[in-house]
Amino acid sequence: MDMAVIELSRLQFALTAMYHFLFVPLTLGLSFMLVIMESVYVITKRPIWRVITRFWGRLFGINFVLGVATGLTMEFEFGTNWAYYAHYVGDIFGAPLAIEGLMAFFLEATMVGVMFFGWDRLSRVQHLLVTLLVALGTNLSALWILIANGWMQNPVGAAFNPETMRMEVTNFKEVLFNPVAQAKFVHTVSAGYVCAATFVMGVSAIYLLRGKWTNVARRSMMVASAFGLASALSVVVLGDESGYALTDNQKMKLASIEAMWETEPAPAAITLVGLPDVAGRTTHYAIKLPYVMGIIGTRSLSGKIDGIEELVLRADERIHSGIIAYDAVEKLKLDRGNIAARAAFEAHKRDIGFALLLKRYMPDPRKADDRQILKAAWDTVPNVPVMFFLFRGMAALGFGFIAFFAMAFYCASACRFSKRWFLKIAVFMIPLPWLAIEGGWVLAEIGRQPWAVDGVLPTFLGASSLSVPQIWATIIGFTALYGTLAVIEIRLMIAAIRKGPIEHHEPMGAVQGFAPLPAE
Amino acid sequence: MHIPLDYETLRVIWWALLGVLLIGFALTDGYDLGVGALLPFVGRSDEERRLVINAIAPHWEGHQVWFILGGGAIFAAWPFVYAVSFSGFYLAMFLVLAALILRPVSFKYRSKHADAGWRNRWDWALFVGGFVPALVFGVAVGNVLIGAPFRLDSDLRMTYEGSLLGLFTPFTLLTGLLSVAMLALHGAAWLAVKIEEGPVLVRARGMARIAAVLTIALFLIGGLMVARGGMGMAIRGMVDANGPSNPLLSASVVAPGAWLGNYRAHPWMVLAPVLGLVGPLVALAGIAARRGWLNLAGTAMATTGIIATVGCSMFPFILPSSIDPRSSLTVWNASSSHMTLFIMLIVTVIFLPVVLAYTAWVMKMLGGRVTLRDVRSNPDFY
Question: Which key words tag this protein in UniProt (chain B) (predicted)?
Fold first, then answer.
């Protein structure tokens, strides 16, 4: 197999997925903030809340459209670039994607049209209901895609079928209620809410700094600070929750985040900072906090957290066992009725994915010697320094958001957002949630390497049989298209923000309520 | 878990649902594509073009989900088809995606500046976003009929031996143009019920007449080429309709003329091509009588009939291989597992009616013809 094809396919997937996820978090959070704002309008009937809702709704629309457009690519990219993956796990992985379409995409996409075009045709309550359904649809779609992604991280409820040469569902309920998926869902949508709250805070702060649209800006900030504080707390607390889930299912990921080379006596210490050394298999200059990791990871003082070296030895054993399963499958290909091979397969089938790791070095894993097997076992360690630093960056940002929104919450009651230094911080904060979110995705996906599906299918086997020029053509094509659209999108966003909430057809009463004030 | 339906039945149901999805896509998003392709020709001034755009503006987003759902459902129910077709038709798929990505942004961004050059560029982007997918879908269907150059190894890994240009042959170009004509006809029919009487509608009717005649002609020629071109495949020997989904366990062979065999074995299937031919005639009658809804009903019949014809001709084949008949994907060897098919059926039975119900509600809430007066006065319009 051609490793260039695999690296390029990974590059393209990373580019398109990360680009797609620039728009998704804002959609997830802003849709619910629109629901809150519009609810206030429906309850109080004060026109300014309609203006507020419509203003943020316009920004929502500009953002939503690119989220949908780039989501198209994602739905098909498993087929175009990861065909063997699609065949190998489609029986399980395809279902949440299809359900996502039926349950979530239809809802959000159908309702969003009414949300924008139905202001004059629907009653207030009807329109609020439509906005709520849009928010529900976007968040449901996150649920289903994270059930799919959660299964890649923790593939429960499925087994390899040698007759069809793929994984098949054995227990759909387990796929659905996968603890990793649940934790990821809450963590990811909370991150989206933080992103939207920070965006609303920042844009409103620009208005307040310039003394424009202050009535709209202050009210928006009120909503954003409450919504943001709750979400920032949830994103960190439930981030810990996904750490907890890791220990059962993804020990290697946890060990590499912590650069924990050897198993420590319980309860393990957490490394705050340090310099992981891959060649020496040690972490220099580590500053550790005793007990904390053991408590986060196992929720006990006696639970042990495995180190990288121990996990590699376990992978080594599983590769040996997987080779037996692989051999059995090859025999079953020739003779479906081979009873001995069937029995060997059944005994070792949960390790067959580990034998596939050897395909990187040889076409037939059965020919591997112990040295090669150990090498393949070491392949199961993801890029430790990247994991180590990304996680610390993301966690620091997470605590930063809590501090920021706590401050905002305090400012809302103490000074009605009149302090300029706070407003400047709010503007500065705008890009940070995106950094944390993209970093979080890189962490999650790099952390799963070398696997496409943990313990089941190595990434390098998942790619389509494409040629390097073909993939370059699409990478260049997507980059040019996406780049152009990003420029246009940002220009339109800025233009819409500059223009502000005023609408020509707005009844005068509403406009007079928030006439621009001179700078303070 | 006990599964009350046997594997064979579920496979046939999912084969039919695949058709329902494709037809659902063509009936809804199809007219948006058609309208996009017609846009520069039926609308001359900015106002006229805005009239056309706002006839589909509130709905295209929901309609496009049929396409996304198509991808998801093929993935879930026919993972082999998903893997082989999208990676095989790799660059063609990229063209479709790029064109479809242009479409949402064109709708949204076109209206943000009044500048004529800006708007004109987005109008052509909308044209590309309508024309290119319509053409490529048709070309892809043509290639499915003649078979795609792929083979599966014993791990069921697929290798593809074609190229982008190889997809375009006289026959597949014909099916591509048929798809464009059919969707343009459908788009024009939608305009006939959705915009006010005026010069745009007159031009749309003119376009519809041409498209209807082309649809009939191309469909007939396409049928002749299938009959004379010796296309077709058959499964040799016993068919295990309940067997595991592994193409290498079945034996498909080239069987020239087999694509017409189903009409002899199951005469009721003739209904599909008949609908495909009668539909455009009904549409023509609707145009002549100035009955917009009759026109639309005719194009809906045409679209349904033409797509169903492909399915009926090929059953049980879904994606034949032109270089290694053994690798061909059929209803009996390319589906997902028994349990997945059943779970997905339950999900579909519950949610598809819900989707149809709220889509109908939205259509009703935003019903009525779009007029130039709306275009001038409604601030929510694109």
Answer: Cell membrane, Electron transport, Heme, Iron, Membrane, Metal-binding, Oxidoreductase, Transmembrane, Transmembrane helix, Transport
